[in-house]
Amino acid sequence: MLQNDCYLFKKEVDWSALHYGVNIPISLQVVFYKSMQSFMKKGDTKDIKLLIEGVEYPAKMTNILFDVRKYPGHKELLQIRYAPNSATAIKMRAIFFESFNFLKDMREKLENKKKQIKIPENRKEYLAIYTTDFEDVFALDCITTVEKNQDKQNILTITEEEFEYSTNYKKEDNTADITLKNQLVKIRKLDRSICNNLKSLYDYRCQVTGEKFGDKYNSEVSEAHHIDYFTKSMNNDSDNIIILSPNFHRLIHKTNPVFERSILSFVFQNGVKEKLKINYHL
Question: Which of 35, 65, 83, 244 is 20–30 Å from 223 (CA)?
Answer without folding.
Answer: 35
